[in-house]
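Lab channel / #folding
Pinned by the channel admin:
"Please post every new chain as: sequence first, then the structure tokens as a reply. Keep commentary short and put observations after the output so the thread stays searchable."

First post following the new format, from NK:
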Amino acid sequence: MLKSAMFKHVFLTGPPGVGKTTLVQKACEALVSSGVGVEGFYTEEVREGGRRVGFDVVTLAGERGHLSRIREGAGASHGRKEYMVGQYVVDLPSFESLALPLFRHTGAADGGSGKVFIIDEIGKMELFSQSFIRAVRQTLDSSSCTILGTIPVPKGKPLGLVEEVRSRRDVKVFTVSKENRNAVLQDILTTLQECLKHNSQNQ
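Reply from TO:
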């Protein structure tokens, strides 16, 4: 019996730009072609004229919405609370309206069983959403769904939920580097298949 059968979820970590999202996308393609149901979202940077102007949330069904944009000038926030990460203003309503409905299908009763749910990423911007935090915790504890997610490397003040994920005994964390990012895909897929097998036995 492989020890990885203890794991229920797989998370990738590593510095920004190392290729975590690309690996998640490659894993999705491989899972889909082997007949595994995949749902969820990933984060994509948005560039204009060669410079990064923000990030979008993209669902696996191809829907897209703003996650954040660079604050242009000192425009007023019209009385709304603004959530900033560095120079980026986080568009919380846009993120929540796209990401939160995806979590509704992760329970066993909703056919979440045997599925892989993509969360890319659990980062500073996403963690402004209390509803997102609650949904992630519920999905981590759900017996039926396997998560493939990404978390940032620790930097500055620890992010509560990120450290929770990192220290869970049922989470396997792969650290992605430029050196291992091509070789690690097979390990990620093998572990995910074990997670799925383990979860289906526990139904």
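NK: Strands lie at 9-14, 37-48, 51-59, 64-70, 83-85, 88-90, 115-119, 145-152, 171-175.
TO: also worth noting, Helices lie at 20-33, 92-99, 130-141, 160-167, 184-201.
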